[in-house]
Amino acid sequence: MSAAANAPAIRLLNLTLGYDRRPAVHHLEGEIAPGEGLAVCGPNGAGKSTLLKALAGLLTPLGGKIHFGGLSPRAVAYLPQIVDIDRAFPINVRDFVAMGALARVGLFGALNAAELVRVGAAIETVGLVGFESRTLETLSGGQMQRALFARLIVQDQPVILLDEPFGAIDAATIDDLLALIARWRAEGRTVVAVLHELEIVRRAFPRTLLLARECIFWGDTRDALCERNLVRARAMSEAFDERARECLRDEFDAEDRLHVH
Amino acid sequence: MSLTPKIACMFTDVFVTPFADYEFMRRALVGSLALALSGAPLGVFLILRRMSLAGDALSHAILPGAAVGYLVAGLSLPAMTFGGLFAGLVVALAAGAASRFTTLREDASLAAFYLVSLALGVTLVSLRGSNVDLLHVLFGSVVGLDDAALLLLVGVSTVTLILLAVFYRALVLDTLDPLFLRQTSAFGEFTPFLFLALVVLNLVAGFHALGTLMAVGVMMLPAAAARLWTRDLAVALPLAAAIGALCCYGGLVFSNETSTPTGPAIILAAGVVYFFSMIFGRAGGVLRLKRPRRHLEG
Hints:
- The complex is a heterodimer of chains A (261) and B (298).
- With 261 residues, chain A is an alpha/beta fold.
- Chain A has a domain at 7-73 and 191-261: Rossmann fold.
- Helices cover 36% and strands 22% of the residues of chain A.
- Chain A has helices at residues 48-55, 93-98, 102-105, 113-125, 141-155, 171-186, 198-204, 221-224, 227-234, 249-260; strands at 10-19, 22-32, 37-41, 63-67, 76-79, 159-163, 190-194, 207-212, 214-220.
- In chain A, the strands form two sheets. Chain A has a six-stranded mixed sheet with strand order 5-6-7-3-8-9, with helices on both faces.
- In chain A, helix 4 (113-125) crosses helix 5 (141-155).
- Chain A is globular, with a radius of gyration of 20 Å.
- The N and C termini of chain A lie far apart (48 Å).
- With 298 residues, chain B is an all-alpha fold.
- In chain B, helix 4 (52-73) crosses helix 5 (77-101) and helix 11 crosses helix 12 (211-227).
- The longest helix of chain B is centred in the first third of the chain and has 26 residues, at 23-48.
- Chain A binds chain B through residues 56-58, 74, 76, 78, 80, 83-86, 89-91, 96, 99, 102-103, 106-108, 135, 155, and chain B through 48, 50, 166-167, 169-170, 172-173, 175-187, 231-233, 236.
């Protein structure tokens, strides 16, 4: 499809993210290549969701930068972990999936025939044919997840961020959605997903970032998910140090560099 | 004389004659209809956004602004309108900003702001003037609408309906999935403020007719009643406006018949429709939930 061809390389430069000065992701460096399938793994509280939120442009970094290769952060389709959607809202599946067209249609434009075709195709791809006129509150958890994926298809963005897309989803649905992710990758899109199910990571994502506030390992999935790395990630302390002092690592790094040169 | 013309005559006496005979009744009808037509759809959105009490809070917040206007210029429409508008917008903006930049949620900051605002308003009104003036500000006087007040009501109603139509998609998306709108569209951040501004505008227009305390009733009660009859937003919005209009008419007739104050009469009429809908409503009324129809085959 159209937007897929120009997926940018996303570069994280000494990225520190957090809330209220407390770092949730500390001094992260790396590059997500165009069209890469990257899994982000790690224990709870490791900063995985925070990283995705920042990639979606919803969180300003405490330090460092994210380089999008000239693309706007809005050219990213983002599926949050806890979707803050009021399921009782009176909207049907077709209209909900059509929300994905917002970036192209805008708040005031009409949904033209091409967009409607796209919406219909997306609903068919995720296997929700026959559900078009049902309201969201009549959907099961798995069906809702399919509807959210259909919206991602309609968004048609070169970069797709998924935050724990398979929580409480049955095996058949997971297989369908993984096939969809594989199709996105084949189209040249970059897919970054936070995942806890290591089996799925090994199956579907060639690259893995193992995160425990700091980067434990970033590379090929087979190397990342070895026992030694997983033990190191698990050892991360979740609690904040109430008396933590200001982080001076950047200054020390600068000094080191001075000494070397 | 047979019975039928007699009943017809009584009917006309109660439902038509007051409006044909008295200009102030006609003005009251036009003013309250304008208010209901724009206020009730806003109420539908307030309910969907789980902000039913925010309208109430904002209606209290308007008071000190109107009071300052009153202190400066007496019972003057422009002064009190401008003051009320200013105070309402300040509180709406401050509460929105406080929820974004502090740890308090929006409902907590709204409650804090409106309580302070209400206390300030009552204090200001009592600094000068009698209790009668206070009653006027609190309960309005729908039968005392002059040309200027009427134009204000109709103008606000028109502007509200136009903006609701133009920004309908933004409002729906912001209500359904605010994070998605914020991530996808630059306008996302502003939508809540636009909505609150419309609510304040309607409350300010409403307090001349119904008073600060009652204006919010025309917004919420028809909206809540409409939601009990339909699950479809495109039906709920006009239905709420229609129910609101009906209640205004019914309330005016009742108040004329019983010589009771008009504002409370209109709200009571809306209350009757609301309780009726609560029992008989097809989409969530008590009877439908208690005695559901037979389940389907598949």
